[in-house]
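Hi all, a correction to my earlier message: I attached the wrong file for 5-methylthioadenosine/S-adenosylhomocysteine deaminase. Here's the right sequence:
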Amino acid sequence: MSDPSFIPEPCDLLVRADTVVTQDDARSIFNGAGIAISDGLVMEVGDYAALDARFEPAARLDLSGRIVFPGLVNGHTHLPMTLFRGFADDMPLMEWLEDHIWPVEFQLTDAMLEIGAKIGCAELIRTGCTAFLNGYFHEEITGKAASSAGMRAVVGEGFFGFPSPHFPSAEACWQVNRKLKEHFQNDLLVRTAITPHAAFTVGPDDLTASYALAEELGIPWQIHLAESPEETAVCLEKYGKRPVALLHGLGLLSGRTTLHHCVDVTDEEIAILAETGTKVVHNPASNLKLCSGISPVQKLLDAGVVVGLGTDGASSNNQLNMFRDMALAALLGKVRHEDASALSAQSALDMATRGSAECLGWQGLGRIEKGCPADMIALDLNSPNLMPVFNPVSHAVYASTGMEVCMTMVAGEVLYLYGDYRTMDVHELRNEALQAKKWVLSKAKN
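and the right structure:
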């Protein structure tokens, strides 16, 4: 007999799913599950029948026949580089940058940057990514695109040590970064970071000054580092030190620091990263395409380094699909360490959720847990490649392609549901992409 004095708790949304993979500290997985959401946060997750009896929702979302995961977090990308997808392929890093990408990049207009950022947001939403760490130019544009699409983003104004059309001097970049943080200070979806390009393109004085600025503003500091043996050779020639040693000597390795790639690192350097609390983002697809090498990720994890996962830009990956990079991370990890148990499916999912969230410096992301942001995605189990289900984590990493994502939600708001983009006009975006293609070709180096 029901208690006549019982008053159900109100909530904004009650989600029902076959399975919820929470990615909480215990890595709890609930079957016949429900998630109660209010004010953009998870109120409770657990047995659906129990939550249905406890809560009175304003709306319901039935995801029966689906597995719900936390939204994936892309720990490293350059969103507007979707403009260069397939533009320059099959060549090493420095040739790719110097002969093809940089000559066009330095001519980018705000209009082109906006189109590229919107294409990137649409792709991320479609493939189950709810937040990303970006580094590029005129980052106010990418931040606005993300916020408009309902995504979370940490954006950082990229700069080089030499004058460029974007920044005539380092001081000009510092001013832009201050204004960028001020611009987004009241935006709940967008934050900022300081983003020097790399140790071989930014001198020690500017690296140190940029880190001091990150400390002043209380925001993350991110940089490409140890991406390839060629980069190491340049650093040794310029400074007599390998990239990790160079940054460590300058006092730039800390919990504020996120390093992208870390392919060419030694055991001693891994120990330094662990000791200093420095975080690393692994970019397997990009590293493979540019033939940069394979990062020793399992060694990093074993040493206690926080490791996230990123796609890098769509010009050095051709996809912004975190599911593909999860699979590559796990498979390459086994080959790199000659151990089939290395880089397990759970480790790959951890990197794409909790690990990347730490690399963004954004607490609460990458998990479905009481009090955390209601950022989540659903995979449709009607897809034959997901039949049958023994282990949902294994399916996410090894069986899924990203195209099984049928729902993407940020802060309790559904951005994508069964083919319907609710915050973006993808039909108009197609027309804009065609305009962008013509523009890129007109600016390409002959």
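Sorry for the mix-up. The first strand starts at residue 9 and ends at 21.
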